[in-house]
Specification:
The structure is a single chain. This protein has about 180 residues and is α/β, with parallel strands linked by helices. It has a single domain, classed as Diaminopimelate Epimerase, Chain A, domain 1 (Roll), CATH 3.10.310.50. It is built from 8 helices and 4 strands. Strands 3-2-1-4 form a 4-stranded mixed sheet, sandwiched between helices. Helix 4 packs parallel to helix 8 and helix 7 packs antiparallel against helix 8. The longest helix is centred in the C-terminal third of the chain and has 19 residues. The radius of gyration is 18 Å and the shape is globular.
Length: about 180
Amino acid sequence: MHSLLGSLASRLGSTLWRRLWRHVWVTDRDLRRAFPSSMLESITAAIAHGETQHGGELRLVIEADLDLAAVWRGQTPRQRAIALFAEWHVWDTAANNGILLYVQLADRAVEVVADRGFAGRVSPAEWELVCAGMRTAFAAGRFEAGALAGIQQASALLARHFPPGVVHNELPDRPLIL
């Protein structure tokens, strides 16, 4: 048995092994502790308020972990965010102005996926600043502050390129917990 585990560990490589381990041990309970219901209400209000300041659409998706098959296949948080962008129709806004802000606890990942209306307007470096600020706050255990700051930063970028106009709330404001 010991040699079997050793063989498996060497086959997997230490990086994949550690990642699989994190995805086993980070649970929905960890997610609820990091993002309790009261905080989700604050986040919902922040998204709704932000959308009065711009003509864009922001969708926050929070996930504890990936299923182990996805981790085994090597699915990255970025790939998962892109898949969720399509699955939850964030791309399906009239002005192509939706963004998905994706948080995944097991990999300590934050990703932004922006619709084609942002192409050439917002640089990847600007989106990365939003993500980096959130990751820093989350690493310090300040989940609410990180989420609210990220929403505020993303809303500022949205306002710069999609000023407020006729309000059409095309995407739910409440964070989606998977």
